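Chapter review: from sequence to fold.
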Amino acid sequence: MGRRILLVSQQSLYPCRTTAWVDRVLTALRDLPRSHGDSIVSSLGMTTWDLISVAANDLGWSLDLVVPAFLTEQQRSALVLEYGLGTTVTWRPVTVESPRAFQRQVDVAAVGIADELVPISIRPTGKLQEIIEQSEEHGQPINRIFETRYRTSNEPISYTVKRSQLTLAASAFEEPFLWHWTRTHHGPFPGESRGAYCRALLSTARYPRTAYDILLHIVTERRLRASHRHMPMGTETVSFTQLLPREAVDLMRWRSRYREMTAEPYGVGIRISAAKRIDIRPVHYFDAVPHPDLPRWQQQSTGRSGDWRAEREWRSPRDVDLTRIDSSDLLIATRREQEATELQPFGNRVLVMQKADTEQAGRQSPA
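The token string follows.
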């Protein structure tokens, strides 16, 4: 048949192997007949395209990858390494002015070079449905054997924890600690390749990058990795708050702009005296930044729509190596009692945040 394209409309932020469309993608890539020279048309940069590309690669398909024409040869080679692509890759450049323009045009460009369209999960009123209908009118072959109904996500991807739902230990906690709270992340761990992230999604029965998974990764690696995400001027830091756990839960909420929680009740606590010894410093707030008397990583604007000073933030300008901190100065916080039991082998004190009988009351989906 030559070049085939698997088509998937934009989906949930948190796919895994058992998600219907992912399962059908894997089934199609295994069951589609192929002969020498056949390939899968795909792209990179969006989760749906990424998973199709990585799965096709790992199942031995050659790839025709649609990419912006402005990518250099060096950048293309970096993509091969980032995604762990070992099969034959044929680059299909599209001339566009910007990455955003490419995202608008990639579907049409990819369909245009395919010999057969294989719809997997298509939103009935979406852009891909329109492209498929137009392609069918022009006589392009459509293989619907692997198609599954498009499903909107009903999973509760945000929740609140009220002070009244905290355990007695979390409510009464008064020790002088700094806290680094984690959150469910729709992307790789800090330092993880995009290919490794995709392969984790393709091989697990639940989404593998929840706030608890990230906490497990931290305590296993014994390292808090610096990140520039949401940081001013791309400054890499590890962020902490001096707020007590009962105060911090008031700031744990859904952020529609980023489609994620600000934080969740999973974290690592470091005693303030120990934190100071490894160059973790308080943030200074100014109406206008940057301020000439402090390094950029230690500065923050007071904010426009809100007041950032309420977070009482501290930062480290580099990764935090937890092996440098005495176990008596470390504390792990987790939401559930069962998770605390799983964390005990790591040898740190564990603070359970939420009373078990209140969990369902705090769940909600974002508007």
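Two observations follow directly from the output. The CA atoms of residues 189 and 217 lie 8 Å apart. The mean pLDDT is 91.
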